[in-house]
Records
---
Amino acid sequence: MADSASQVLLGSGLTVLSQPLMYVKVLVQVGYEPLPPTLGRNIFGRQVYQLPGLFAYAKHIVKVDGRAGLFKGLTPRLCSSAIGTVVHSKVLQRYQDAEQAEPGASKNEHVSSLEQVLKETSREMVARSAATLITHPFHVITLRCMVQFIGRETKYSGTLSAFATIYREEGILGFFAGLIPRLLGDILSLWLCNMLAYLINTYALENGVSMAEMKSYSQAVTGFFASMLTYPFVLVSNLMAVNNCGLAGGLLPYAPTYSSWLDCWSQLHKEGNMSRGNSLFFRKVPAGKRYVWEERRFR
């Protein structure tokens, strides 16, 4: 119990700290660009036109809504984080209890074997999927609270009232908008990360004094690589969560009404926007597009 409480507190702290970053990322993902490109230098020192990065974007939000404006959508996101942590922990605990209750259960002789990795990854997949499924309604509300910045709406002003609004206008399915690509992205990222880490730890690294440290580094590297590969699922999920919900950020000119998440994926792929919002630093101006000041976006 104490361990779960400490995990919830730690997760809540990280959620608060990362809220401004997620807020900016979501607005960029939607395609909202309130500031025009400026002449700057890329990582190689060459002069190029760049879009405002994280800090410039955040400064603009503060100018419009004050510092508190950077934390729109924080309450439902904290609820999602806390509930997700508890559900994830409970599911894994059930697996552990069931394993200990099995007659003749014994510890695995080879902890790093392929069978052990497959078993642990499968359990983690179920735990994460359960947490995602239960907390997705809070995730949808979080995204919509953030996207309200574009049209200056107040439709989703509170967590409870947002639940009532979504149920009244969209029914139960409205709470799970964008769920499928989010689940697929999480599952693919988890399996890619763990299997790549297993291959590196088993076949690329030799036993030595710093073996444990090297394995932790390989896990971090493979996790980053997996998240990069599965980013389009995150983008599509977030866009579907706000699409055609009555907010300016989910309607034209920012997005057409997508018939499904596959339709959204197809449109983004055609436009070359599959990585939009992936980086908040050294953001390049989209090739072949011009900035439209009146719409605060590129087209």
---
Amino acid sequence: MSDQSKDSKPFSQMLPESAPSSRQVAKFLTAVAIGATLLTLSGLTLTGTVIALVLATPALVLFSPILVPAGIVLFLVATGFMFSGGCVMAAITALTWIYNYVAGNQPPGAEKLDYARVRIADKGRDVKERTREFGQQKGQEVLQG
């Protein structure tokens, strides 16, 4: 018994000295009543689900050659509508961005587009100058040769 700490007290002394208040008792009883009700409802739901599955299984087996392709068709139709809606949203977003850009409202990314436009124009001028120089060199070679 020398392993016990010096602060250990008998169990009867660790119990609270006063009884719980009526508010605490009401909270506890309400929680127990709600918990029991929800547990009963979940049990009834599980029982009803199992009974419905047992009763519906023969019908599902009989109609599965019809239900499976119908389910696949419904899935494909729903997927098509969702894809179509996504394309419409993308088009609306793109057209709104273009409208804002043309109207001068500077939508997000407009600076990058302007920078790319300037770079492409610069490269175009460089290619034009090089082509002109190359044409002049070839023209002089043809005249000399």
---
Amino acid sequence: MMSSEEFEKLHEIYRSLYDELQLMPQRILRCHGEERKRLVRVFDERNGEAEEVLQSMDRELIGAPSAYRNAMSTKIRLYRRDLGKLQRDVRSSDLGTGLASRPGESRQGIYATQNDHSTHMQSQRALLIQGTASLNNATASIERSQRMAAETDQIGNDIIEELGEQREQLDRTRDRLVHTGENLSRSRKILRSMSRRIVTNKLLLSVIIIMELGILGAVVYLKFFRK
């Protein structure tokens, strides 16, 4: 996934380098001798740095949406064309003034030294860009880890709260069970009391029935059998 922030940083770096490169052909044209050679070396270094930045921008565009990628790829090609034009301007001005025309100077030796120095600077620039990218990736990884830790902490807090609510529910259920047990005990006592009363009532009723039968038998005997 392309980081738009990283791409914008690279774009700003390139624009800064290009603004500096734009001024150098005229400065080189106005200078002579060692100062001209120094400016040519500086131009090569900055040009190499700009090319490295464009390569990094190419890598950043790999994961970009197609519409955005096509537009920015076109812009990068235009940037490379502008760099090539500046390089041709510097080389033409260098050839026109005969930089290596003095005795003992070798144009091939000068440009070989310049190219070696430029290659070294490009390598250093590539390492710097790679280190910056690695640092950005590490920072993003740390931020993701922090977000995951915060989310995990939030989940843990939610679980603790839920367990607390479940404990309160269990305590209330236990209290209800205790109250239910007490109610059942009272109900059993009432039922036993009622059972005893029923038995007592049955005994009393039986006694009354027996007494009534006895009285009835006595009355019948006295009335019909006794003379």
---
Amino acid sequence: CVILDMQAACQDATVTQELLKEGFHRDLLVKVELGVVGEDARGCAVAARTRLPPGIYVDPYELASLQQHNLTKAVLIPDVIDVEAPEYLATDLLVLLYMEPDPRCSRCFRAVLPVHGRYHRPAEESEEALVVLKSPEVLVCCCDNRLSAECWKPAEVEAPCSGKNVGPCQWYSVTHKPAYKELILQVPVGLRQHSSLVCVVTLLATVLCSSLILAAVCKYGHFS
């Protein structure tokens, strides 16, 4: 009975994800409620480690600007990202997102991460591609605290506790129950049967614009 009670207490952490805004440019809101295990993590750094699929990405330049203004703290792995690559040429992105305490809840933390949808191949029927975001892993870093071995296990994370370059620390992970196991982002895509029409319209627009530019140059240009 003691073992069952301990397991129940350790699994009391809850994670929720939500996509804000509409279109290709969204904000990923992550909320963590530590519950009973939060008693061990008082004064510790809390983070969510999530793996973003190739269908979405984080702009490192935008993230650097947000971090400069203390609006978001995150570590990207890899830190070099091709923001122009389409979905079928991109790779997964591992993100360590540092959480801030939620003033409305003593054991709650939250963070917002800007994410962007990538270009997808045209589809046969559906006008939307589905990008699935799995529930993140909850991590804490307590350099001066002793965590319960029953609830916390060491995690391999090469990142500082505070999000600043003060050297790596030992992180710990906790088992949790996601409110929703998966979060789905719907990305608009074109249809294959429209390819010919798009090519013709693009060609006509190019010829028309080139003709207007050439006519303007011939009419108003000064040739020696």
